[in-house]
Amino acid sequence: MITPTHYMLLSAALFIIGVIGVMVRRNIIIIFMSIELMLNAVNINLVAFSFQLHHVVGQVFAVFVIAVAAAEAAVGLGIILAFYRNKETVNIDEMNLMRS
Amino acid sequence: MRYIWLIPLLPGIGAAINGLLGIRAFSRRVSGVLACTMMAAALGLSAVAFWQLLGLAPEAREFTVVVAQWIPAIPLQTVHGIGAFQVPWGFRLDPLSGMMLLVVTGIGTLIHVYSTAYMADEPRGGVARFFCYLNLFCFFMLMLVLGNNFLVMFVGWEGVGLCSYLLIGYWYEKTSAADAGKKAFITNRVGDWGFILGIFLIFYTFGTLDFRAVQNAAGALPIEAGHFGVLSVICLLLFVGATGKSAQIPLYIWLPDAMEGPTPVSALIHAATMVTAGVYMLGRNAVLFSHAPQVMTIVAVVGVLTALMAASIGLVQYDIKRVLAYSTVSQLGYMFTAMGVGAFSAGAFHLMTHAFFKALLFLGSGSVIHAMGGEQDMRRMGALKKYMPVTFATMFIGTLAIAGIPPFAGFFSKDEILFRAFVANKAIWVLAVLTALMTAFYMFRLIAMTFFGSYRGPAWDAHQAPAAGHAAHAPDSSHQPPASSHDDHGGGHGHGHGAWHGPHESPTPMTFPLMALAVGAIVAGFVGIPAALGGSNTLERFLEPSFTAQHHVLAVGEHVAEGGEAAVESEPAAEPHVSRGVELGLMGFSVLIAVIGIAVAWNFYVTSPEKSVQLAERFAGAHRVLSHKYYVDELYGATVIAGTFSAGRGLWTFDRRVVDGMVNGAGKLTVISSWFSSLTDRTVVDGLVNLIGWIVQESSYAFRRLQTGLVQNYALLMLFGIFAFVSVYLFVR
């Protein structure tokens, strides 16, 4: 029997993988993908509790998160593309223009 | 007579034209003719006005013309409460001012004519300047004479002082002339101080400055016989003014130095007219003075002492003009003596006759100086009689007149004064007679040294003047004059004739005034022949109304006035006490005195010239004192001038030490306080600011490490932050 605990463990694992990805990877595309992973970890949590509690709001919320993630992906990729055109790199260590 | 205001104005116009245009544009002749024309026109108007005045009844001989309001009624405090201080430009013609008018315009015109020749060697602009000043002087003098109140008189009074200063300093390149001008001006200021104070006091006492009103008001007051009241103070202040202008002790010192001016100036201003302004002013205020008998005594004593002192100085002077200057001071002393003993008309009479013969003598001396090429030292003259007969004859007449030989003018006026002095006070009479003796002596000494004896002047080219050949060598043998200081006069006075051809008679414009004045010196006395000699003393009765309070005021019925009026009348009433025999005897005595003086002078300087030298050596001390003018200049230099200097120096020291010290101290204090202020500024304020900056800077070294610019660092920190917040949320709460 799969209990909410299992869902939460999966979600937490995915979230931690995403956080570690954001922290340690240098390629901004990978970082971006890690962020998506974290978002989806949240989605799993939302849907699981919605199912458990027989309450539809969580699923509606998950759909909103997916929509926001899509919009975020569009904007973020646009930024990355513009950055690449300028600097010809996607290494996040090169992205230090704001440094004094 | 309505146009008497034109009389001063005409010379004023002449002065304006000559001053504004003449100095730049006019030739010598044009400016001279212009000035002479203006004076002659003024003389004509004066004569007409005087003639009309004579046509009036004796009591009605007073005419006032108000040209314009000068000072409108200003409320001012007087002794009777708030009075109205108002002064019109008013002119008044009465017997006294009429007489002065004729003297000033008449002698003024003659001297203007004389000046055209005397100043002929001056540069063109200088001549116009000279005539401008001379006309301006006449303008102010006539205003002084004609003014009907004290303030108009004061305007004239100051104006003549100014012109005197300008004319004494005419040769302003010469230090001595400039100094003499300053001396005259400053000495006069001292007198003017007294005069203006007197005017203030008159307004404060009477509430008016009009002569007639003041006279009437003063006539109503009792005579201050026993006490020294306000009238006495007024008179004393006015007399201080008169001593300044008329060169009396103690302010006479400027007049001899004033001889630095051109000789016509000396004749007009410093002999005939301006210096007599003080006498005139006393005569104008005769009513005031007769109410202050103590001041009258002071006036008489000062007058006779001045006469004696100046005459004694005149005995030993060698500068021809200085002898005449001291003579003028002495004769002015006579006039003051006359005023002081209450013989106002005698004083005015002497004023007139003196104006004639002294102007004559000065012009004659100018002629001599002109002839000698600027030489003024009598020791370098002599035997000029044969070179300049007209000058000699006229000057001789003037000398006889001043010495008091009948029937010349001086005899009558001087004798009148001596007689009145005899009646009033025997001591004053003795001193006056002594002065008369000295006068006769020094005047004949002047004549003898100048016109007689042997020629002692510089030699000249004998070919040009063969007649003087033998005389030219005389100076080597006898009386070699010491190398005197007057050599510079030649160049300075502008008598550079080029080649000097020896003494010569002066041109006609110079000799004509001499002759005219000589006639005046002979006949001027005839208007005042005393009753004792069968005359009727016309002048005295003519002048009498000017010296008394007005009669018709009495008719209005002021009873208080009658007492004062009677007292004024009592002064002339003293005359009949002395018999005619005594009067005649006094006359004879004074003539005898004059003759003695003449004889002694003749003996000393013509028949045996060595006697005067011996006498001077015998009484070397007295001689030295006299030739140094009693050391009065030195005394004033040591007291008044040195005192002023040291006071000024003291004030300067005070200024430097205390006032400047305070200012500098304040400055120094500011510097010190600002130093402290800057110190705190630098340490405390700047220190705080720097401390904050330092703290920020130092802390920034630590904190800047955070700003790596790496996104992942920021994300990590954010994560830690979230952890922290969540931990707090979960566990602490």
Any overview of this molecule?
The complex is a heterodimer of chains A (100) and B (733). By secondary structure, chain A is an all-alpha fold. Chain A has helices spanning 4-24, 28-53, 57-87. Chain A is elongated, with a radius of gyration of 17 Å. With 733 residues, chain B is mainly alpha-helical. Chain B has 30 helices and two strands. A two-stranded antiparallel ribbon of chain B has the order 1-2. In chain B, a hairpin with a 2-residue loop joins strand 1 and strand 2 (81-93). Chain B is elongated. Mean pLDDT of chain B is 84; it is low at 464-497 and 551-576. Classes of the chains: A mainly alpha (100), B mainly alpha (733). The A-B interface holds A 19, 22-24, 31, 92-93, 95-100 and B 704, 707-712, 715-716, 719.
Write the layout of secondary structure elements.
The complex is a heterodimer of chains A (100) and B (733).
Chain A: H1 4-24, H2 28-53, H3 57-87
Helix pairs in contact in A: 1-2, 2-3
Chain B: H1 6-25, H2 28-55, E1 63-78, E2 81-93, H3 95-118, H4 124-146, H5 150-168, H6 175-206, H7 211-219, H8 230-245, H9 254-257, H10 263-272, H11 277-284, H12 286-290, H13 293-314, H14 320-340, H15 344-371, H16 389-403, H17 409-424, H18 426-451, H19 469-472, H20 474-477, H21 488-492, H22 508-523, H23 538-543, H24 551-556, H25 559-570, H26 580-607, H27 610-618, H28 620-627, H29 632-703, H30 711-732
Antiparallel strand pairs in B: 1-2
Helix pairs in contact in B: 1-2, 1-4, 2-3, 2-4, 3-4, 3-10, 3-15, 3-22, 4-5, 5-6, 5-10, 6-8, 7-25, 8-11, 8-13, 10-15, 11-15, 13-14, 13-18, 14-15, 14-17, 14-18, 15-16, 15-17, 15-22, 16-17, 16-18, 16-22, 17-18, 17-26, 18-26
